[in-house]
Amino acid sequence: MSKALLQKLHQASSPETARLLRAFFKTGPGQYGEGDIFIGVKIPVIRRLLPQGDALSPTQIESMLHSGIHEERLLALLIWVRHYQRGDLNQKKYINSLYLKNTRWINNWDLVDLSAYHILGHWLLDQPRGILHQLAHSPLLWERRIAIVSTFALIRENQFEDTLNLCAGLLQDREDLMHKACGWMLRELGKRDEKVLRQFLDQHRSEMPRTMLRYAIEKFPEPLRQRYLRS
């Protein structure tokens, strides 16, 4: 079953799209996606294949995730998300455990952003949150990004504390991709409670990376946005 699905994925590939994706996801020497392999399949095409993964077991999907090909990993993660959303409590727990076991394969920003809050973030809505802070201290960029992006599920339920604590702890992170992710989550928080966001900004703006600040205030009225940029 998984072999037939992967065959369909490869049939939809495009060398020109692969070339563009390699550049977009920074696969060159020394870049964050160094060595990642793309065959050139866009996300809408991948999403159309998802129903064909309904019959796969979580462990079959795990095997698919252990691929050097980016689109195969993305397909596996999106099928896991689909299974998680449709599963009972035991299946959700199992898929979340597999997700955490396989973070080394969730190793680019799109893989993180399209899966983390749907699986780990949702699971943590009524669970202890220690794993978020453990991941946020990881030496691996992608585990740190999983931590902060997972809080999107919490933000959607107006639970802001973990997002604020993680962002405060990640102010000194050296990776621009983390500055963007933190700024994104702060912006989403601000859509729900601008007062809470402004309190965070007033406390931390002097030490916030510029990218994080710009992302966080993107939806502010222009005069207010300029005030924060000038401060």
Keywords:
15 helices
Outline the structure in words.
With 231 residues, the chain is mostly helical. The protein has helices at 2-11, 15-24, 43-49, 58-65, 70-86, 89-101, 109-113, 116-123, 130-136, 141-155, 161-169, 176-192, 194-204, 210-216, 222-230. Helix 10 packs antiparallel against helix 11 and helix 12 (176-192) packs parallel to helix 14 (210-216). The mean pLDDT is 97.
Chain-wise SSE layout:
Layout: H1 2-11, H2 15-24, H3 43-49, H4 58-65, H5 70-86, H6 89-101, H7 109-113, H8 116-123, H9 130-136, H10 141-155, H11 161-169, H12 176-192, H13 194-204, H14 210-216, H15 222-230
Helix pairs in contact: 4-5, 5-6, 8-10, 9-10, 10-11, 10-12, 11-12, 12-13, 12-14
Give a quick rundown of the structure:
The protein is mostly helical. It is built from 15 helices and no strands. The chain is globular.
Helical percent range? Answer: 55-70%
Task: Output the radius of gyration.
Answer: 19 Å
Mean pLDDT: 97
Beta fraction of the residues? under 5%
Output the structural class.
mainly alpha
| Helix run count | 15
Unreliably modeled segments: none
Please report the total strand number as a whole number.
0
Report, as a whole number of angstroms, the end-to-end distance.
57 Å
Helix-strand string:
HHHHHHHHHHHHHHH
The outline comes out as globular
Q: What summary fits the major beta sheet? A: none
